[in-house]
Design brief:
14 strands, alpha+beta
Length: 221
């Protein structure tokens, strides 16, 4: 018998609303003699359940690995300025999470939460450059014990459909590599920032599909 994938607690409200809506719509369809269409609202309910899945992940035993903070497709690998937390040039790896990806975000590296900043904004398509600069976002800065990368930044970015960023961390919390840190609901983007002078070796390229807490995006020296 296949093992059931657990659901995240962050989806309780949406799952409850979808269940009520599916039951109400089905009752209406039965009342007007269209009972055969009842499969449609329950297909939508099944998709909502699928979206809020929280799959178990086997975290790589590699103390130099920078893990993917999200499931999705790599859309960007570039160097740019990151003045807010890293204070200089940084490598940025951007990941687009489609509505079919698991949306639980995970810590890319072990560290202590030193910086949290939520920024309201717009809702551009999360595959675009504008989404990184203008969309609603939540930045999580980690202080690490690695001498080459004493600071690492993760950004959760809302997309065109996503309107709800969830972060379960507070400043001062310690996280392990691969630990759950929240999610962005219904299509979004996640970004990893590492100081350029850390000298890390990138292990992915644009177009690669990655998995949160499992795929190694880069390795530190």
């Amino acid at each position: 018998m296949p093992k059931l994938v657990p659901l995240t607690r962050h989806g309780r409200r949406e799952i409850g609303l979808a269940l009520v809506a599916a039951a109400a719509l089905c009752a209406l369809l039965v009342a007007v003699g269209l009972a055969w269409l009842c499969v449609l609202p329950f297909v939508l309910l099944a998709w909502v359940l699928y979206f809020f899945r929280d799959p178990t992940r086997r975290i790589p035993d590699n103390p130099r690995a920078l893990l993917s903070p999200a499931d999705g497709r790599v859309t960007e690998v570039r160097t740019l300025d990151e003045p807010d937390f890293l204070g200089g040039k940084a490598l940025r790896i951007g990941i687009f999470m489609s509505i079919f990806d698991a949306h639980i975000n995970r810590a890319p590296f072990a560290g202590t939460v030193q910086y949290l900043r939520y920024t309201p904004g717009r809702f551009h398509d999360a595959r675009t450059q504008a989404s990184s600069e203008e969309n609603e976002a939540n930045a999580i800065g980690l202080a690490t014990d690695h001498p080459k990368a004493p600071r690492i930044l993760v950004k959760q970015i809302a997309g065109y459909i996503a309107r709800r960023i969830v972060c379960t961390l507070e400043e001062g919390d310690h996280v392990d590599a691969g630990q759950r840190l929240g999610m962005v609901k219904f299509g979004s983007r996640a970004e990893l920032y590492v100081p350029q002078d850390a000298g890390c070796s990138v292990r992915v390229k644009v177009g690669d599909h990655v998995a949160a807490g499992t795929t190694i995006l880069a390795e530190l020296p």
